[in-house]
Amino acid sequence: MTHRRKTYYTDYSIQGRLIVALLTMEFVLVVFSLAFLYSHFSQIIDDQLYRIHSVNQDQSEELVAALVYVLSFTVVINVIALLLAYLVWAKYVNSVLSLFREQLEKTGKLNFASDLVDKSARHYVLDFLSHWQTLERNRCLRIRALCKSLHEDEISGEAASLVALGLKTAAKQHMELV
Q: What are the two backbone dihedrals, phi and then psi, of residue 112, each rounded to the nearest 5 degrees?
């Protein structure tokens, strides 16, 4: 049975808030746009009602001008909202990635101290990294203990081969990182 890697594209802690904010903004924008158009169109139609016997004026130009005004205003507001959402999202992603990068650099230097104190950027990727660091720390402690006992000539041949295998694996992993 093969295990397929799951890819998660959503982070509900930030994306949920952004989606709710954008949907609320769109709803309010549509309501105000429709109210403006209703008011403006009513005014144009009322003005034309009393000019019924005067020279025939085409009111479609005034209606289209009001519609273009509302649509351009809506587009500008949407672009600004999307830019703000992008900035919020980019700040969040960069905060998670900077913590991730710092922890990986420490691990590369065999510093397994996990000092993730910034709770605002908590993410499941950082939790996985912290768990992996704990496993690597325990593995390095076992290798260190085996090396120490190897130097004291108190281990059997099997333990010596395990230490040698562990050292080869660690050296190989280190060479892959470099």
A: -95, 15
Q: Which two tokens stand for residue 142?
A: 């076992």
State which residues form the domain around 25.
12-98
* 93 in the same domain as 127: no
- Please tell me the predicted confidence (pLDDT) of residue 80: 94
Joined tokens for residue 133: 């660091």
Q: What is the pLDDT of residues 145-154, one digit of tens each?
A: 777 776 655 5
Secondary structure element (H or E) that encloses residue 148, with its range: helix 124-151
85 and 23 in a single domain? The answer is yes
DSSP one-letter code for 117:
-
Phi-psi region of 68 (alpha: psi -120 to 50; beta: other; left: phi over 0): alpha
Q: Which parts of the chain have pLDDT scores under 50? A: 155, 178
User: Which pair of structure tokens corresponds to residue 52?
Assistant: 């019924």
Domain count, the chain: 2
| Residues comprising the chain, all counted | 178
pLDDT of residue 39: 93
